Batch of 4 targets.
Target 1
Amino acid sequence: MLGSGTIFPVHDEELAVTPFEIPDWWPRINGIDFGIDHPHATVWCALDRDADTFYVYDAYKKAGETTLYHAAALKKHGQWIPTSWPHDGIIRDKGSGMALKDQFRGHGAFMLRDHAQYKDERGMSREAGLIEMLEYMRTGKFKVFSTLIDWFEEKRLYYREDGKVVDEYDDIMSATRYAFIMRRFARTKPSSTSVRKRPSKPIVGAQAWKTKS
């Protein structure tokens, strides 16, 4: 029995780190929790694979805005970063008839092909994700930029009652969990030098004969 109480009984000081510039070679991934009947939330995360450490370096929560607004905010750290999304992303908007995930894609967001889930028998298990996150926190492998006030506030308010997670004030926590369990799809920043070269002109006539000889 999981009982009642806070879900992440770890002191903020054990998670908080002073903000720093994320190295280009660290893979990144975003996580979003669609604001259907609650605020929309987004987190931006990075992996230090050498130390097996997960970082949350930015977070955002906003209610009462459009998909276009949220998609623009999502891309602020780079349109190349893949975004993990929950199962309700397949719900179709009553007005447009388009799924939420596809609306974000239409606004230029890089959405992962499938909704957030483990690739093994854990599937979409929320408890599996929360337990693994807590393990990372307790072993010093889960870090959050100290400036993310909303993230830490939600973490402190996130709790269980009679063994069940209370679905209130958990928008950023949910977005974080989606990014965390799909971190295997994180990718590094594309090189600025990887520009496609123009095809060279074909060598013809005498020049072609000299090349062959």
Target 2
Amino acid sequence: MQHYDCLIVGAGHGGTQAAWSLRQQKFEGSIGLLSDEMELPYERPPLSKDYLAGTKSFERILFRPEDFWASRNIALQRGRRVIKVDSERRFVCCEDGSTFGYGHLIWAAGGGARRLTCPGSDLGGIYAVRTRSDVDAIVQDLDDARAIVIVGGGYIGLETAAVLSKQGKTITVLEALDRVLARVAGPDLSRFYEAEHRAQGVDIQLNASVQSFEGANGRVRRVRLGDGRDLAADIVIVGIGIIPAVLPLIEAGAIGANGVDVDAFCRTNLPRVFVIGDCANHANDFADGARIRLESVQNATDQAAVVAKYLTGQLEPYQAVPWFWSNQYDLRLQTVGLSIGHDRIIVRGSPTTRKFSLIYLRNGTVCALDCVNSVKDYVEGRALVAARASPPAEQLADAGVTLKSLAPHFPNVEDKQPNG
């Protein structure tokens, strides 16, 4: 059994950042990085955007070339899916029978695409957008496909619709709720994106549930809706969220009902076990202290840095300002903060210009911004969210007033957000 001073499970944004950060913080122990895929570690956000569109090759979305890992003395172990954690004897077991011991364990396994379980959900031609192999399978199927049904009107579903609509396909998006992006944004943004997609020829159907899939020769051909209607479908893409990959930790005794509960240093109740990224259920200052899971690059990489510092003697609790982004057509949406519990929305600018911002207030305090093609508002708005600022609403709404001027002690903030 191989043993590592720090074993990292998961080679996505969180796991790779944890490995890099440990070396940057002069961690001298051995590091093992386990990936359940055979690929070199790669970025996930481009999968539903540039990689699906074919404008970025796989090599361009790799975090680092192959020789990088060995040069940093990071043992990359590919094709290792962990199925058991023994927290008392400090080792993990993988699906292929291999075992790895650890001094400290960082769990950054992310999650698997949530699947539909209705009749016919096991037919061929039904895909998720979670891994490179998922997208490669979709691309290989596109030439013979005309009608594509996308289940889910969140970021993944809408980004996928934006890419495929440019390829001359008939696209239908099915959203179970009464608006798209309902879980992450206010009604104004939802209606804006619904209109944009419809203008591009995408059929957005709201309050639409899937009853079953029907097929021929083992392959999907139609989608039957809850109201009895049928839709033709050569390909179905399901984007309805993820299930955090934490079962081995829960079976080992980790506490958590939605992911695994962690403290401000990403520690679990299991000794020497940390959880970061999509799997980490943490109390977030920008959600009024509520326990949440954040499925974002920002959360994964910032929590990775917190753990790396902790393991090298630097106790800096997680306090990062959340941010997200989405590219659809020529629209770049940048979000900062969390709109959870907001009680007022201020529209800054006009959606008709396709350049505007929505500012969310909670008890008079700026808690989040959604900025469409408005990088300046995004950059300056971050300072408002970080400071929990409460400027007058009329000034926030006035596009002639810079948000920078409303932020106390505006910092020199750069937009470090990666391109998706």
Target 3
Amino acid sequence: MNTSKKEEYFDIVVIGGGAAGMMAAIAASFDGAKMALIEKNRTLGKKLLLTGNGRCNITQISFDTRGFIEKIGKNGRFLFSSLAAFGPNETVEFFASLGLEVKTEKNGRVFPASDKAQDVLHVLEKALKKNGVKIMFNHNVLDLKIKDKKIEYVELENKKIYADNFIITTGGKSYPVTGSTGDGYLWLARIGHKINSPTPALVPVKIVESWIKDLQGISLAQTGIKLIQNGKKVKLDPGEIIFTHFGMSGPAIINASKTIGEYLKKGKVFLEIDLLPTLGIAELEEKLKKDFEIHKKKDLKNYLSEIFPRKLAVKLIELSGIEITRKIYTIAKSERNNLARLIKNICVTVNALLDFGSAMITSGGVDLKEVEPKTMRSKIVPNLFLAGEILDLDGPTGGYNLQIAWTTGRTAGISARDKKGL
């Protein structure tokens, strides 16, 4: 009985059928390259369909290349040359060339005009088919086999896939239900790549205080947030927060989660929430003084319910130590000023970040020092290219992370095509 595995040969093989993988395959498949895209799921783009709450925030066009990079953080400089070649504007043009109509909303967020992520996936799948890319569904990669310091073939359960060049776009560990289970990190570590510890990013936070669950479902459009550790305060970006049964979520918290996670590694972390960031403490004290005089016969909870959601108004009174039934005219100056300070500074204790199951993206990944920024080629294995979330690159919400996927995927695809037979 012949037990040898079947063999297939390609010019370029992409492993991982998410945003970066599909873009890499499309970019690499011109000029007659024989292409394969290996995907462990039954369908492509499972995580793509979840982005933007199912609407798919394709990119972010508020900034030029330098401004975009600043939003990514310290590792953003790695993207300078690839973003200059294929940035947000080029991404919009690319999708337009595929027949996708898009729209730009506030804060520079670009979505498909239909508000359906499925339409983004559809045009990508159509382009893959048009370019003759062979898609291999339901295939788990077992290992990468190295010969003469290059990848010779990819081992699947029932076959070996040979190629001149390989592109790995398997993502990180966020939303593991979509197939992002960190497999790529294991393969790459085995062949010599350094993997900076993957951690959940863009994720809600758990709060210690049990009263937080009483505010479940309340959202506040604009709050100020400061992180406190060992008496030192770090101002975080303001924005919308949402109270949950376990703690806090919303864009402002999610975007701050990476910073919160970094501080949690050093010790206890507190968050100071400013419910009325447009007013200074002296201004708020003066406003309450005047309002209390005008509305002195009102119940305090009814007055505060005109400013905040009722459940939050009641909680503020409870936390301030004032009886819930008090009329405004019975409130002493010291009690009024304590209430003002509480509104400007609700302090909560961070327990932990939620895990990868709730994280939008992964922070950490392949160390960028081991990847050529202009080509996405591995400096460890010369016929290997890397793109997307598997790299140690991540940004805030608002289209940044998908743009990283499009940019690095396209760069890797073009580079692998140009270096065919390296």
Target 4
Amino acid sequence: MPKYFASFDYSATGTQGLLKDGGSQREKAVTAAVTALGGKVDAFYFAFGQADAILILDLPDNVTAAAVSLVVSASGAGAIKTTPLITPKEIDAAVKMKVKYRAPGA
């Protein structure tokens, strides 16, 4: 199953909800949503700095990842950034592919 790195930055409204419900309840809510879509939360951490929360998710496909991202963004609780993660074996396969490419101005 593809893995995704997601970072989340809380809005003022989202932070108020986090203060009200706590971190464990937020983790449970996210895990329930991801599990209902056939995925799994590999890691869930709160942070401070560039992101307020960091997650590693196993999701069935890019469409599911996009659906999660859209619903979270539409909530107004904050902004999510989702990055597909690529395994070393996938990179091995990619470097073996022959790509015809011409750089700009070449």
